[in-house]
Design a protein that fits this description.
The strands form four sheets. Strands 1, 2, 3, 4 and 6 form a five-stranded antiparallel beta sheet that branches. A four-stranded mixed beta sheet has the order 5-10-9-7, with helices on one face. Strands 8-11 form a two-stranded antiparallel ribbon. The termini are far apart. The radius of gyration is 23 Å and the shape is globular. It is α+β, with helices and mostly antiparallel strands.
Amino acid sequence: MTDDFPDDRSDGKSRAVPSGRLSRFGHFGRLAGGVAGGMLAEGARRLADGQRPQMRDMLLTPGNVGRIADRLSHLRGAAMKMGQMISMDAGDMLPPELAEIMARLRQNAHRMPPQQLQKLLAAQWGEGWRTRFRRFDATPVAAASIGQVHRAQTRDNRDLAIKVQYPGVVESIDADVDNVATLLRVSGLLPRGLDIGPLLVAAKAQLHEEADYRREGEQMTLFRTLLADAPEYVVPLLDAEFTTDRVLAMGFVEGRPIESLIDAPQETRDTAMRALIALLLRELFEFGVMQTDPNFANYRYQPDNGRLVLLDFGAARPVPAGIVSGYRDMLRAVINANRDDARDAAVAAGFVGHGAIAHHRARIDRMIDIVITEFGRPGAFDFGDRRFVGVLRDEGMDVAADQASWHIPPADILFVQRKISGTALLAARLGARVDVRAMVDNYL
């Protein structure tokens, strides 16, 4: 049995997770101090060069970018998860420097030192937990924002993947979300007068749900049932014996990272993305429940049979009927090339605020026309062709520059749109070509 846990002096990739509130507060304090020092140095340099430094230029220096990314990665938990969420949601809209921070946070986190892992598992399973396994690999196969995954084999030869939650995650969610929101405000990305309170409440609630591993196990079992008629997907089997509030155990499923398909033949990439888009449409229009975290690490690919392994159901949530009908109305208007109906449906659903229409109707209409044109092209949609994205971004940034036009959609829409945007981003990464319009037609 592999059960030895060496001391904390390891290869440099292990880093203890700050678990106490005071400890985490101290890390944010040191981050603020380091960033402030970097800002003063950059401001002095620019003044010496005869420049008039702007707040954003002083904040988002390469040194500060590194400080912020490293500290949030060290903290893990909600701090790192918020960074990942922003990077998937905002994508092309982020300033380049902030986009770099968020891109770093999509990479694997540092793992827990062995002694911290041992202490956590003893608290969840009891001091003699190692005797229940034939093998438990102390080195994780993956380390992410909320937990890390270990491979193990039970005494009766069950091959398991065991996700262990970092200590202090649940207790630090609310404070971490508030601290990341402060970072966004200071960066100048958010207007001072914008009320993001409701969005922060929704983010905290979502993250508390994601940190409840018993709930995630229930959602994984639900999706396994919902997709029982779809052999192209693989959902792991929950192992209830070793699952607790902070540990999630499931059958280990082989698979390669979905991004490994980048070099695969075009037909293979297209087939995989067609399956993921079909899943998205079923979640939205059939199941009434959606796994709303499109992180690429949540999908794996089995090259021998072409099946897709679906992982991480912590962000699975019901989709209200009103949201479903709103998307159906918008898609129907786009397919019918009816700009006015598309605009009205977007406002009714909460996507666009009345202020944006009142002040920037021409820009909104141009954006709708672009979507109608791209969606209306016959045959497969080429996700690898991103030329129209830059035009949409420029128009959107012009609208966003007017603070009177800022509008935060309802949280339920944001969660669904996060899945849609992330799926499109993955399709673009793979350069997939899929006849999305034909697939959507089946639901309208």
